Amino acid sequence: MEINNIFNEAIMAQTGITIIKGSVLFISLVYFIYAVTFSRRVKIMNQNLKTGYEKSFTKISRFHIFLSFLSVVFFLLSIVY
Amino acid sequence: MKRPQYLSSLIKNPANTSYEGKDHDEEVLLIVRRSLITTFMWLIGGVVCFIIPFIIIPLLKKAVYNGNPLFDNFFIFSLTFFWYLSLFGYLLREFLNWYFEVFLVTSKKIIDIDRGAMNISETLLTNVQDVTSETPSMFAQIFNIGNVRVQTAAETKEFEFVMVDNPSKVRDFISDMIARKDSRPHGNK
Fold first, then answer.
1. I need a surface site. Which of A65, B58, B70, B150 has the fewest CB within 10 A?
2. pTM, whole model, 2 decimals?
3. B79 contacts on A by Cβ (under 8 Å)
4. Looking at the partner chain, which of B19, B85, B120 has a beta carbon nearest the beta carbon of A71?
């Protein structure tokens, strides 16, 4: 009876969707870590070569971190609800 | 229409430009970047990635099981948001790699900043032995882009700047700088 439940098509489809959503959440988390390290790299680039656009590049990279955080939150919400 | 300075690949006497370790009596005279034409590949990649969701999203919306959609609208929105965020990140990284990969000629030195300002080599102008420019292919000849090679007597034997705009002009500028340096009396740097 339980085995029948496990292989029930509807449950399998639901599990598949949850796995897909979980994988995408994991990828977005990895991307968030990348965004943070990239911001650090931008800081080093700005130190090595000063061009007058340092503030703009720093702001853009921070905005990039914020957006990637937002993306993680969106995926979390899409799993929870 | 004049191109904004941050998009120029060849800038003489750039304003507000400095590098880590610049002396107070040193002046940046020339900035050379790769030609904007070399950014063509990643721009094409960006356009292709921009179009992909327009094809994929309708397919995801059509995916149904027992009459119910497999993916809810919020998940599809999140996926699209993440896709365009990644595209933005990719273009930003490529732009910054292009922007920070420069070759500086100062009143004292030649500095080669590579790999998004992660590798830096420099040599004194007095160490430069030979400057060569070459336009290697038909494509390069059409757009007047090419490579500039600087041979030095220092530990880093050769500096190479690939795919720069107007390579002859860059070579001539460096040669003039060296000639000016050599014609000064000794001890007067």
1. B58
2. 0.84
3. 24
4. B85
pLDDT, mean of residues B146-173: 86
d(Cα A73, Cα A27) in Å, to the nearest integer? Answer: 13
Dist. CA B10–CA B29, nearest whole Å: 11
Q: Exposed, middle or buried, B146 (CB in 10 Å: 0-12/13-18/19+)?
A: buried
* B69 touches A: beta carbon within 8 Å: no
- The pLDDT of residue B5 is 64
Walk me through the domains of chain B, giving residue ranges and CATH numbers: 5-17+25-34+103-183 (2.30.29.30), 40-95 (no CATH)
Most confident of A9-13, B82-86, B140-144, B167-171: B82-86
Q: Do B74 and A41 touch (CB under 8 A)?
A: no
Query: Cβ contacts (< 8 Å) between A42 and chain B: which residues?
Result: 96
First-to-final CA distance of chain A: 29
Per-domain residue ranges of chain A: 2-80
Are the Cβ atoms of B78 and A74 closer than 8 angstroms?
yes
Residue B142 contacts residue B178 (beta carbons within 8 Å): no
The Cα–Cα gap between B84 and A31 comes to 13
pLDDT of residue B3: 60
Which one-letter amino acid corresponds to residue B135? T
